[in-house]
Amino acid sequence: MADEALFQFLHNEVIQYVYKSAENGEMENGRCVSKLEHLGFRVGQGLIERFTKDTSRFKDELDVMKFICKDYWTSVFKKQIDNLRTNHQGIYVLQDNKFRLLTQLSSGKQYLEHAPKYLAFACGLVRGGLSNLGVRSIVTAEVSVMPACDIRIMIKQVN
Amino acid sequence: MAVCVAVIAKENYPLYIRSVPTQNELKFHYTVHTSLDVVEEKVSAVGKALADQRELYLGLLYPTEDYKVYGYVTNSKVKFVIVVDSSNTSLRDNEIRSMFRKLHNSFTDVMCNPFYNPGDAIQSRAFDSVVSGMMVQAC
Amino acid sequence: MSIPDYMQCAEDHQSVLVVVQPVGIVPEDQFFRIYKRISSVCQQSIRSSQRLLYIRYRHHYPPENNEWGDFQTHRKVVGLIAITTCASAKEWPQTSERFHGQKEVFGSTLYDSRLLVFGLQGEIAEQHRTDVAFYPDCDSCPDLERRVEDFVESIFIVLESKRLDRTTDKSGDKIPLLCVPFEKKDFVGLDTDSRHYKKRCQGRMRKHVGDLCLQAGMLQDALVHYHMAVELLRSVNDFLWLGAALEGLCSASVIFHYPGGTAGKRAARKPSISQAADSGKRHRPGAQELLIDPGALTTNGINADTSSEIGRAKNCLSPEDIIEKYKEAISYYGKYKNAGVIELEACVKAVRVLAIQKRAMEASEFLQNAVYINLGQLSEEEKIQRYSVLSELYDLIGFHRKSAFFKRVAAMQCVAPTIPEPGWRACYKLLLETLPGYCLSLDPKDFSKGTHHGWAAVQMRLLHELVYASRRMGNPGLSVRHLSFLLQTMLDFLSDQEKKEVTQSLENYTSKCPGGMEVITLPDGLKFPPVPFTKLPIVRFVKLLNLPVSLRPHKVKGLLGENMSSKSPFIYSPIILHNRGDERCKKIDFQWVQGAVCEVQLMVYNPMPFELRVENMGLLTSGAEFESLPAALALPAESGLYPVTLVGVPRTVGSITVNGYHTSVFGVNSDCLLEGLPGVKTGGCMVEVVPSLPRLLLSTSLPRSPHVAASEDISSSVALQLFNGETQTLTVTLDNIGTETLETLELSSKIISTKEKLLGDILNWDIQEAQSHLPLLPGCSLSLTVNIRVKLDFSGQENLLPDLSDDGISVTGLPISSPLRQVLKPRPESKALSADPGKNEHTHFKTLEAVMTFKYSGGGGHVEGFYRELCLGIHVDVEPSVFFTRVSTLPATSMRQCHLLLDVFNSTEHELTINAKNNQDLLLYASECQRMAIQVDKFEFESVCVQPEQSQQQWETERQQAQGSLINSTLSILHPSLQREGEASVEGVLNQLVLDHLQLAPLQWDVLVNGKQCDCDIVTDCRVGDPVSLEVKLTNHSKKEVGPLALTLVAFQDYQNGIQNHDLQDAVTFIGSNTFYIDKVNPTFSSTCTGALLFLYTGDFYLSIKFQDDSTRRDLPPAFFGLPTVHIRALESPIENGA
């Protein structure tokens, strides 16, 4: 399990670093989250390239989402998404009841206000991965009780 | 051994194109460009056709008098095109497949390189050397 | 057959071919009008049966194609309609002959023919002939269509008869061998009796019959016949005809499956209703395929037995089978090189079918094949047509890139070297059509955002070709437009060498035809949008500059509200990027003035590897009228962020928005709008223009200052060097150099804060005199005199105090002439020198800076409440002139006056004279110090009114100023050698002790002797023996009550040698008491005590009035109790007579 911890520590430090450098400059809170999200985006693009190297071609959007929930999530967070819901019109909600990056923070409502920082990178990962597969989307995350979180993906339909 | 290798982005512009001999590169540009039609057709046919079409290798796209054009599309919609000489009959399908595999591996490495911005032309020397290894030697 | 008919489709196999030709000379438009009308009869239902006949019309058909009529019956001409004009009956026989001649051409295959004669009237026209129709002229032939229909009917009759003929031809009889032209020689001398041969004949005939059935509208029969033919021909390996039979099968099936036709939108067929109804009946599930024995066919072809009908439906090929069969047929055709055209046409037909089936991959394979079919020597025209058609077909299947490729090939073919007259126009047109295939649109806006679409290398080649073609076409404007487009959109992809080449050729072209911003429209309606050069140079910043300080308009306060710049709301969200558009709408918070030269600064970058010459660069504005003055510049190669200033003059009032700029580069004029340039940063583009204001030029009588102005607001400054206390006049001349009349003028001044203590106003002027010149017309000038007077405090206060106490002279003291007085030495110079050099007062120049601000306005701007400011800086270096190194006071003889002792030090290098009003001049040499004494009146401090807000310190300062000014009015300095004079001020020199001494006591004591006022110098005379009345009056000018007081009079004599004699009991007696008692005196009240003296001897006597020690005395300062000393001279009384 050591490798998991490595990533978590690195992730936490990245967040601290981004916020600390923001304090010295004049960045608002929103910019830090955005920066983290962009980091995740670029990483996601590369990750997807590597993970889909050997898989067969995806049939459709749902296929892509299933891949994200199963293989992608497993490769990064060592577990699958617990629940995938969709309205079949481009909105998908991924539920993870024990999101790895939040388990160390709290198991209830404590530190709830800091949760968005810790989810920004993961959202970027998803968005980057989808983008490289040709799906343009907006990814947001919601947390009501830690460590469960909902990741909401809105696919931008191409007309 | 290929006479031309090209990597095309999902927006259908070239990320990398290299051919031997280099003076007639424009001709290869045209060849690869027109082969995109076939690639797109094949990819869009995936949903309708059978399950075995789901592999990434597309096979022979179309033959011309002098060349044979093969295609391969990754899941990230990046297309690889290899053009080989028609007279080179010794090249088997498996060899072509392995060439594409090597390309894909190398491309994945490029993608994961933090200095590479997705969408830019590929300038990685490692990629260049992989491609050189599979091209016909210039005489 | 050499010319392929690319437009043929599978369903054309069921049509009959009718040729419409002119006989003799027929005007083209007339001919085609008639032709069009005739062609409208393309589908006809036969009266006697439910079948439909399709007719194909051609106005030109090569006779050699006719020879293939046996092979595929739709290729042979079965009907001929000739059109001719005949003016008179004389020409008729000739016309008739010619008609017959033409019939001969197609004679072998013709079923029927008709001649239409226009323009002939008379008895020949009255003839009623079935084969000739006479019409007076082209427009009056209403029954033309009907005639054609009749004609078609007759053709049908012939067709039907032939069909039946052949159908009923049974295998017993000798069946002739049908051949294609090139085969004929192959079958000479063959054994006609072999089974092989007979089968061949049968198969071929069967196929022919199938064709006829198809033409006759009997689809199912045709299918059956074809099937049979296929069987037969396969067994004899008669490949060519086998292919034809297969193709026939495919055609029939296509007709069945695609009633709308396969020709696409071009020739949409109306699906025949009867056929549809038929086909509907036949689709019944569960039916089995059953091949009918041809013997069971009846003459009518339709079997009443429904079961066999069901079977028949399955004779039709399935859509997949169609393609299979086509493939097979084509492969057979491929074996015969003379059948190239047939093969090609078959490929084309198959592709069309595949296009409808949306099987692009296979279609492309067919097309691929088609490209390589060798048709022998094609003419250039044919090649062009072939490639164009290929391109169209690729387009049909959705392979746009391939389509573009072939179109390009066709374009190149148009201008192949072997063509004597290259068709550049056609080439150009074709090239234009290839653009969409290469994702190249000619609108530069599509390229301004985001990543580059399409393949740059290919696109560049294409653009070069477009340029070349348009040049050869003779349209240099187009060449320029295309080349500009290339330069603008492909700049990033051009190598340095290519950039040079492209720009050189562009300059070549534009020397003949300059490029502009208009939309170029081709005759066929295609429009080319203009191409502005937004990258030559690249503009990064656009900044509107404020006017120079002296020309800026200021708004009179009170109307300031509207001019506040509004901040754009900062909308932020982590996903959506900040919208730059807000920046541009920001309003700038300075204004421009109508008629003034205003500047806009652009930061530009030259991306080219050589020097870029930009001519005629100016601004594009909207809103108020703005006259832009163009600039020309040369930017060095690949240089970054070069500032360029564009100027212009606003001509009307209002709001100006800078929309962009225009340039002329390489001979191409571009208008670049800022909104089309997303990378440009700007601090706001909209500026208000205020009405014009007058413009003044300031000049002064004194020379300009070399000093750098304290702030950039100051337009000019003067420097002076003055001695402390000197006054200098400065004449300021204002010239009205603008176009507006000067209407108002105000002047104010400000001392730039300095730590120096200033004594008095430096600057003053008379504005009224200047304002009397207003309004000042343009070209006139006015002048203003300003007096500059400097009075600085050059002394250090702390030096004074100790000396005063050393002095040891009491206030109530002694007259000046008292020998007891010490004469103090002049202040040793060493004292000044011992101070640290920074404070060296002798050589230290003090600098004073002041700014005079002229506010002026006039014209339209004045109406709106604007004004301009001119600032004049005044830099004065002040040299110290005289120092009062020490001040002390001596009491004067009068209680109301005091002697002020000033040690004056001349710190200049010249001699000067100092002169107090009442005294004589004191000459001081350089660096000499002397003491002078002036007599001043003591004065009330309370007369200086106190403002409640002032602090104690301020009050002190005011007091001192007031005092100083009183004293100063008595001092003046002269520098005779320099002809300069000034004033010396004691302000700041007076310290508290001195002031105390100067202060007029608020308790005013008046002593009257014999009714006469006594004071220091006044000697009162009295007579010995006469009583002298004495009155002491106290007036209380202070604010508090004073008293009670007790006074004692003491008489004494002063021997003038320091000894006073108080022992005068026998010389002076007091009448009454010598003690006065004064009760409390309230403020502003006075109290008087009276007494009397008697002098017994003559002599000089002094009376001193002393206070008894009282507690009240300690509350009040001793100065208040300064009583005048009374000097009485007792004189001998005149000797009385008789004593």
In summary, what is this structure?
The complex is a heterotrimer of chains A (159), B (139) and C (1139). By secondary structure, chain A is α+β, with helices and mostly antiparallel strands. Chain A has four helices and four strands; from the N terminus they run αααββαββ.
Number of domains of chain A: 1
Average pLDDT number of chain A: 84
CATH architecture of chain B: 2-Layer Sandwich
The pair of chains with the biggest contact is:
B-C, 20 and 24 residues
How many alpha or pi helices of chain B? 3
The helix fraction of chain A, in percent, is 40-55%
Q: Uncertain runs of chain B with pLDDT below 50, 5 residues or more? A: none
pLDDT averaged residue by residue of chain B: 82
The appropriate CATH architecture of chain A is 2-Layer Sandwich
Sheet-strand content of chain A, in percent, reads 5-15%
- Alpha-beta content class of chain B: alpha+beta
Q: Which CATH class of chain A? A: Alpha Beta
Output the number of helix runs of chain A.
4
How far apart lie the N and C ends of chain B?
14 Å
Low confidence ranges of chain A: none
Q: What descriptive keywords fit this protein?
A:
heterotrimer; A: 159 residues; alpha+beta; Muramoyl-pentapeptide Carboxypeptidase, domain 2; four-stranded antiparallel beta sheet; 4 helices; 51% helix; globular; B: 139 residues; Beta-Lactamase; five-stranded antiparallel beta sheet; 3 helices; 5 strands; 36% helix; 24% strand
